[in-house]
């Protein structure tokens, strides 16, 4: 019996130690932040999940999980404030609402409400829509539907200011935000680009026998409706930007903050971010991040996160980078929509 008691003691010690590590690694805002899980519906009536962060006066606890991130928040607490600005997020391919949880916490701590949808068919649980003809246009429509939900059906909608709305997008979400702000990608360009350039997204499309590699099929997806409610946009490592041909960004007239990692081998600067930067010119506030790879823009990793998404090159300090980037994003939105 002694060995059983000793084994139980060891298990208890390990469990307490692991719990302490997890709590110590929890994402924490500077000021109290509330968090809710909600469900919106797209134009076809299909539901999709939305993570919502907001300022609160309630006490927070490091007990709320979102994906593999533990957050120190007040779950379902009352919203504090009136006339609050809204920022909607669009995650990258196979991501989720928690992909940029630290930025959401920073914005909510600064007085913003953040709504991050889980893109249907393009998230870490379900990739059924990725690479289909309707894939990219569907993402943009889900962003519109998220804004509709927040302004009309969310219980705290009366505390929002509908004239102060911004958007943040990463990777495929960067293109989603740009199309919501007025960009008009041409999906027919994918076939030619992928035939000439060994880019990561091209390998994924080929592996899935994507119809987007057929120009005649791809053109059926060239249907995008901009959302004039979005008054400012932050875009990080925008994927598929090689679909933005001449004049594709002419209708983007809102302020844009643009980010690129100098070591990004997934979404190359030359064929993606550079096109956006050159098209927008002085209208874009550009940030190039030395040492940053593609996944460096994801939230700093906790103990359970997969190494593929958490391994940065060299001595790159993701936590330090995110502290600086989050402050810059907050300052940009403060200037653009506050």
Automatic annotation (TrEMBL):
It holds the Pfam family PAF-AH_p_II. The keyword Protease does not apply. This is Dienelactone hydrolase. Keywords: Hydrolase, Lipid degradation, Lipid metabolism. InterPro entries: AB_hydrolase_fold, UCP031982_abhydr. Transmembrane segments: none annotated. It comes from the Bacteria.
């Amino acid at each position: 019996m002694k060995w059983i008691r000793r084994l139980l003691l060891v298990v208890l010690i390990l469990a307490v130690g692991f719990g302490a590590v997890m709590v110590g690694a929890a994402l924490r805002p500077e000021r109290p932040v509330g968090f809710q899980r909600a469900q919106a519906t797209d134009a076809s009536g299909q539901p999709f999940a939305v993570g919502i962060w907001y300022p609160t006066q309630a006490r927070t606890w490091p007990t709320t999980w979102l994906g593999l991130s533990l957050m120190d928040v007040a779950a379902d607490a009352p919203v504090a404030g009136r006339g609050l600005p809204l920022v909607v997020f669009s995650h990258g391919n196979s991501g989720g609402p928690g992909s940029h949880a630290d930025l959401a916490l920073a914005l909510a701590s600064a007085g913003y409400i953040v709504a991050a949808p889980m893109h249907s068919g393009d998230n870490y649980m379900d990739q059924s829509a990725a690479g289909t003809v309707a894939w990219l246009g569907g993402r943009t429509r889900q962003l519109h539907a998220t804004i509709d939900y927040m302004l009309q059906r969310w219980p705290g909608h009366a505390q929002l200011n509908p004239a102060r709305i911004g958007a943040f997008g990463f990777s495929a979400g960067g293109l989603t935000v740009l199309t919501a702000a007025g960009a008009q990608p041409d999906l027919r360009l994918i076939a030619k680009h992928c035939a000439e350039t060994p880019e990561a997204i091209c390998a994924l499309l080929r592996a899935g026998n994507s119809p987007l590699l057929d120009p005649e099929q791809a053109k059926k997806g060239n249907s995008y409706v901009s959302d004039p409610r979005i008054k400012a946009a932050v875009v990080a490592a925008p994927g598929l930007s090689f679909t933005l041909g001449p004049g594709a960004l002419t209708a983007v007239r809102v302020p844009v903050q643009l980010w690129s990692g100098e070591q990004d081998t997934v979404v190359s600067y030359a064929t993606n971010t550079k096109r956006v930067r050159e098209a927008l010119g002085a209208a874009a506030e550009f940030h190039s991040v030395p040492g940053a790879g593609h996944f460096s823009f994801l939230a700093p990793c906790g103990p359970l996160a997969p190494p593929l998404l958490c391994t940065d090159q060299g001595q790159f300090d993701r936590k330090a980078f995110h502290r600086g980037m989050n402050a810059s994003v907050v300052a940009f939105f403060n200037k653009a929509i506050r």
